[in-house]
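Incident log entry.

Two folding requests arrived from the same account within the same minute. Monitoring flagged them as a possible duplicate submission, but the sequences differ. Recording both here for audit purposes.

Request one:
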Amino acid sequence: WFQPIGSPDRMREVRDPLAFKNTWKSTLYADWDLRLGPQVRTSHRFKWDRIEQRETTTDVIGFDGRDISGFLGAINKAEWSLPVGLAVLEPRWKSEFRHQTLGLFGEGNRREISELVGALAEMDLLQATHFQVGLEFLLFNDFNQDANDFQSQSIAFQVSNASDYLGYRIRALTGISIERKDFDQGDVTTTSTTFLTIYAGLR
């Protein structure tokens, strides 16, 4: 309940149903990391949820819920570190899968997968100055809405510098990123972002 502004002696009811009120909820989660030699790292995450309402079907329909809903997700990542001259090259791969019927208020089922392949290169310009460049290629597939399917390409450059000033440790980051997103329905968008970030902390 809350009292509207300018309405003395009047209270208004606000419904706030809980997603897991009077339910059975089961969860299974697992994660593990694996190293393939000194330079290859992989990580894996898996989660499964099942939510079963104990209310009657009529009550569940009354608050726009579902008798049984759930979530299934998996994330797999791999990184490879390769010294190349004065730089370090890190090829990367990441896969995400989601199947979700967990929303309480009208969220439709979500079943989607994304595959990302990229590479990050880093090198020292000076003793405290570092340069990074990264490339990413992303493929996104929405199994329920073809209009959401897209592929994108991104490139980013960043320069970082660390220094000491009057007892503070100053770290500055500046760079630019450019992304081109190509939807399967024909729409193409290109966005660019420039940034400057400064961190200061006591040593």
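Request two (distinct sequence, not a duplicate):
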Amino acid sequence: RLDPAAARVQAARAQEAAGPAAVAAPGSAAAPEPAVDAVVEKMAPGADAALLGATVRQWKHLTALTQAEQETILLVSVVDKARRQIGLFLGILLSVSAVVIALIIYTMTMEKLKQIATLKLIGAPDRTIIALIVQQALILGASGWAIGLLLILTVKDYFPRRVVLEPFNVMVLAGIIAAVCLLSSALGVRAAMKVDPATALGS
């Protein structure tokens, strides 16, 4: 911002350049001068940016920021805040997905308790039964990942803001979904391990 003295000098020069018609009549309210919040300065090649910044900062009401400093402020104040919000939203979605997958796997396991008991009765090892349940959870997770990826690739160009989907992020998300599916299958595996093989002989 310009200090009051500089603002008065600038206003007087503008009135002199405009002529007598621009001078306000006695008793009338003159239009306020627009405030200057920021000035962009392009330096000559080889100029010392640090020296210029130190010179500007000699005035207490002025400061100087380089392009790198402006980008840092933007990243901290805007981009980092948006990243945290998206991370929180993603964490909530993953938690809800884990609960949903766990309930689905548990329900499917409870519906097949007699078949699981038959497998145990004929001597199937526990690792085979666990593998079947884990495969169901991974299939559910892979299906959701593929559908979500296809949906993102289809509609990302219509977002109001640009969306960049990098292959590394896709693979990291796939790994997170696989871990969530493995944890979610624990409830179904626990129910399957408690099945008595004698249940297969019942009605």
